[in-house]
Amino acid sequence: MNKMISVTIVERLAELPWYTEGPAMDAQGNLFFTTLTGGIIFKMDTEGKLSHWAYAKCPNGQYIHPNGDHLICDSGQAGIARFGPDGERKGYAIKDTCDGQTLRAPNDLTADADGGMYFTDSVRESGMVCYFGTDGSQRIVGKGFDFPNGIALSADGKRLFVAESYRNRILTCALRGPGLPDGKWEEWARLPEHPSGDIVQNLPDGVRMGKDGLLYVAHYGMQAVQMLDEDGMLVDTVRTGYPLTSNLCLLEGEMIVTGGYGEPGPGGVSSIKL
Questions:
Q1: Other beta carbons less than 10 A from residue 55's beta carbon
Q2: pTM surpassing 0.90?
Q3: Cis (ω within 30 of 0) for the bond into 66?
Q4: What is the pLDDT of residues 167-216, one digit of tens each?
Q5: Contact 270, 242 (CB under 8 A)
Q6: How many CB atoms neighbour CB 183 within 10 A?
Q7: Domain coordinates of the chain in residue numbers?
Q8: Strand pairing report for 138-145 and 148-153
Q9: 183: which DSSP letter?
Q10: What pLDDT does 274 receive?
Q11: Nearest residue to 104 via CA among 143, 133, 65, 134
C-alpha cells in the first residue's frame, strides 16, 4: 500500500548557486556534500558553519571510510578520488578503467563490510556496475544498463540494489562473493511515474538502505523520496520540496536530502525529520 507522509518538518540547511549531491556525515557529526558543476565539496560542521573543504572537476557520490578518508566519484575525471580527513587529495582509488573496461562517468558508490567498493558508471544504454577490492581486485558486476545511478547493499551484504534511471526502476542481483554476481540482474521495483509521461520527470537517483529494512530512493523529477519494503513495494513517499531530488543520507530519525531547482543550479541541502 502506498501511504503518503505529510511532512511537517523540513529544514533548509543551505542554499547554494549549484545543484547538490553526495551527502555524507563523518564520525564527528560533520556533514559533507558535493556540487557537481560547482566543483566544490562542502563541509558543514556541527555548529552549522559552511566551508569549502576540497575541490574536484565534477564531484558526485561520496563515501566516508571509517578511517576518515573520503572516496568521491568525479564524473568529470572518469575516476573515484580519494581525500584525507583534512580534505587533502590523495590521488585516485580507481581511474579510467575497471577490469579492462573504460570508465566514463562514475556516479555513486557503496562499501561492503570488508571495504570493497561497488560503484555505478552512469551513461545511457551502456552503463556499468563495477567493483574494486582492498586487495586490488577489479570486477564488472553488470553492464548494459540505461544510466545506472544510486547503489546500495542489503544489510547482510548479499544483495546489491541499483537505480536504473531511464527505466524508472530498481534492479537487484544476489552476490556470491565480493563483486561476484550470483545469477542475473532482475527488476526488483518499478517506481511511480510522473503524470506528464516525460521520462525526465522520473529518474530514480541516489538510494540508501535504512536500518528499518526499507530502501530509500531519491526520485529526481518526482520531488520525493520513495520508500520501498523488502519486496520492492512502495510503502511511503516523502515530499522533499526540491523539484529535482538527487540523493540522501540517513541519520537517527532524520534524512539529509540534496538536490535543487535546476541543473547546474541553484540547489541546496535540507533536513527532513522522519
A1: 15
A2: yes
A3: no
A4: 999 999 999 999 999 999 999 999 999 999 999 999 999 999 999 999 99
A5: yes
A6: 9
A7: 3-273
A8: unpaired
A9: S
A10: 86
A11: 143
Residue 113's alpha-carbon distances to 66, 71, 127, in angstroms, are 11, 16, 25
* Distance in angstroms (rounded) separating the CA atoms of residues 19 and 85: 24
Q: How far is CA 13 from CA 16, 45, 83, 269, in A?
A: 10, 11, 24, 5
Rounded CA separation 37/272 (Å): 25
For 26-88, where are the E strands, in sequence order? 31-34, 40-44, 50-55, 59-64, 70-74, 79-83
CA gap 44, 54 in Å, rounded: 12
Q: For position 261, what pLDDT does the model report?
A: 96
Intervals of the chain under pLDDT 70:
1-8
CATH architecture of 3-273: 6 Propeller (2.120)
Dihedral sign for Cα 258, 204, 274, 118, please. Answer: negative
State the residue for C-alpha cell 590523495: 90
Question: Amino acid letter at 216?
Answer: Y
Phi, psi at 148, each rounded to 5°: -65, 140
* 3-class SS of residue 45: coil
Q: What is the DSSP letter of 141?
A: E
DSSP 8-class letter at 220:
G
- Distance CA(127)–CA(149), nearest Å, equals 9
Q: Specify the pLDDT at position 9.
A: 78
pLDDT of residue 4: 52
Q: What pLDDT is stored for residue 2 in this prediction?
A: 47
In angstroms and rounded to an integer, the radius of gyration of the C-alpha atoms of the chain is 17
Nearest residue to 163 via CA among 120, 131, 194: 120
pLDDT tens digit sequence for 76-102: 999 999 999 999 999 999 999 999 999
C-alpha angle 76-70-132 in degrees, rounded to nearest 5: 75
